[in-house]
Amino acid sequence: MTQDPSKAAKARAVVASLLIAEAVVIAALGVWLLVLTITADSFEFLPLLGVLLFIAMASGGLAAAAIGYRRGKYFGRAPAVLANLIALGVVSYQVQACLWIAAVPLAILAGATLGAALRAIPE
Length: 123
Fold this sequence. Notes:
Elements: H1 5-38, H2 45-70, H3 77-96, H4 100-119
Helix pairs in contact: 1-2, 1-4, 2-3, 3-4
């Protein structure tokens, strides 16, 4: 199946932009967790290390997937799909906890990114 190169480039750009938005959100969440860890009454090194690894792997992985999409490479497709399926699983827990203020935006972002990642067809 042949696709118009300009449409393919636009689809990749949409996916890359959504992945960058997710990476920024995860980085902000990681920084918030980092501040909470540092300002806690009792300081533990291992939880701090876990937060730092979370920030680096989650945010960095989504950013790397976005860069791959922008360049027309599809090595980031599987991590993008997996990360957003996990995010939709997190949404179900947030809904059960009636945490709608977090569940709705996350569901919209994860659903849009997942849909866009699955629709972007390799050249």
